[in-house]
Design goal:
about 50% helix, 24 helices, about 15% strand, single chain, six-stranded mixed barrel, alpha+beta, about 850 residues, globular, eight-stranded mixed β-sheet
Amino acid sequence: MINLRYALRTLFRKTPFVTAVAILSLALGIGANAAIFSMFNEVMLRSLPVQDPERLVNLSTTSPRPGQNSCGQAGDCDTVFSYPMFLDLERVQTSFTGVAAHCLFGANLSYRGQTLSSQGLEVSGSYFQVLGLQPALGRLIGPDDTHVVGESHVVVLSHGYWTSRFASDPNVLNQPMIVNGQTLTIIGVAPRGFDGTTLGARPQVFVPMTLREFMQPGFKGFDNRRSYWAYLFARLKPGTSIESARAAVGAQYHAIINDVEAPLQKGMSDQTMARFRAKPILLEPGPRGQSSVDREAGTPLKLLFGVTAFVLLIACANIANLLLAKSSARSPEMAVRLSLGASRRQLVAQLLTESVLLAICGGLAGILVAGWTLSLIAAMLPAEVTQTLAFRIDGSVMLFAGALAIGTGVVFGLFPALHSTRPDLVSTLKGQAGQPSGARGAKWFRLVLATAQITMSMALLAAAGLFTKSLLNVSRVDLGLKIENIVTFGISPELNAYTADRSRVLFQRLEEELAATPGVTAVTTSMVPLLAGSNWGNGVAVQGFEQGPDTDNGSRFNDVGPGYFRALGIPLMSGREFTPGDTITAPKVAVVNEEFVRKFGLGRDAVGKMMGTDGGAKAKLDRLIVGVVQNAKYSDVKDKIPPLYFLPYRQDPEVGSMSFYVRTSSDPKQVLGALPGIVKRLDPNLPLENVRTLVQQVKDNTFLDRMMSTLSAAFALLATLLAAIGLYGVLAYTVSQRTREIGLRMALGAAPGRVRRMVMAQVAWMTLIGAVIGLACAFGVGRAAQSVLYELKGNDTWVFAIAALLLTAIALAAGFLPAHRASRVDPMRALRYE
């Protein structure tokens, strides 16, 4: 307690300004790290809130997987299985206590006349059992609910949905609610904090997987071994390793593949069949569930974590230099206390108490900085991300910030404490009071720290430059369409039990209502939303295109409305686009893009050729190509434009959901406000989905690039500012220590300009050494970041050159003031300087 009281008095009474600057520097460094740790912990570290999550394993396999593949947020298409394969694995498994399956679906939830567009999760009867969960209310879905396909019409509410929509009412049990047009009975509420097993998704309801054909109209894949859509995970038996389980289930899986599934495959070459028979089943640790988010965000988050670590190191280097300067000034005090009998251990403990207290204050302030940083990050993220991923200051973040604060306090306070309490300090009692020690070791330590700050600033500036140039490249991508003044939204009447015929009528009426709205110049639709990460594709047959067993005949596709290309500004190269007359009773037609023409060798005679949307060897060529359009982006801004064909949605016999695009003559915000009323007039129970401008949709599609560029630039500038402050402090302190030397030089005839050059030469050498080492670090950062850079190499010469020039300018500016001050030293006063 004595050390703590003395530390408080020393820090906040004697040097309040210096203490405030130190706390601010630490708060910025610790706060930045805590904010990124919050994101990193949520995406990469946090385990599911279930029983013994370390015993969960995720199942996947490899290609080839001929047939229909449907995958989503829980992982790519190598991680999905057919429903019959799930049942086989559930029956034959010996290394697991259970195998479970799940699949996300879009859900329109209606209760007492209020409809919400959200997500639901289809689960097997073993799902909650394998996770070891107990209900917060009622019961959970179990094996008895999935014995017979389509029979058990029950639903379990998520705890969050029960709390927000039902006010935690226990009387909801056995009450009916409508999910995607089906009346289901509420049987229970999931436990608090459990939001499914897919990071980035927050389902509001859980329904039996055997209701999939009701939840997703048109689904007919329960008995189809060539329809892959279910994600599987399992729980290891106690004492069973993942390696032994992989070997055991692998043998059973290969038996099913070779004896049951291989005979069902048609049109395979011998090579592909051999790969199909030999493909393994894979088991990976599953404590964090199944998600593609960690794979996509892992590299950017690790890079940001590295950037913020550099920021903290630079801030800590400043603190170490500050403490070292203070320790030199306190040399007489330490000498007196040592001569009076204090032990060196006591004095080191006192000084470390001061540095740790300083760091703890910086850590507490850093929590505020972390909150502000997370708010800034949230403003850059799409609404879908902020609604499903909770980036917050929780207990783990507080512990991380606390450990970081104490660790930095000890590590960067240790050398100054040892330096100022070394045993030979008693010799200072023979000199003048207050004389700085000027120890050579301390001098070199300060210079090394300042040079290290320059090194880290160089690496961060180069990284920021790479991400900024990458974002600039993304912003210059030719989308192939005009996105200005367009409002987009979606509706899914099939989720409200609309038939396909009724859905088509609704879409046409809504097109007419929107077209009649003041300020609207064009209206069109598409089944696959533009630039939203959605990909729909299949194999096709094209007149004149020869294909063998392993020929790549895949193409993306989209169902669109009349005037689609004109409304979106996609140029028509030849032929015509769709008209209102292209209905389900009219001859089947298609429009293709330039990449489709190139891939299938259609040349200049594409218009008039026939194609089929079934890519089998005996595919029927029943659709006339009536137009060719210029290439335009489809799913992602950064992806290459795929071969793509378009069909009129009015010819789709199973159409059930649609995205609308409304072009306006002025500010689209006026139309945004009118949309709910227009849709409500046609169907008051039909919720709108993803209402936004197309410009915002493009920004959301590239949010990771904008986040990386903005944060890396902000952290790099912050780090460089801290480094500049540190460099200025070191030079100012060095000049003050050399005042007598400088005065003597000037008394002997040294010109002020020569003194300035002497100080600036020191700056130049430190900058040169730091920049060279920093460039080497920047090359390493560039290699690590290569996967997230767009059309840019990680060793871009111009980026590194600009970063070096910027750093040099800042370093020279930081050193100029101490150099100028040194050149104006009065020789007579300097010779009397103590």
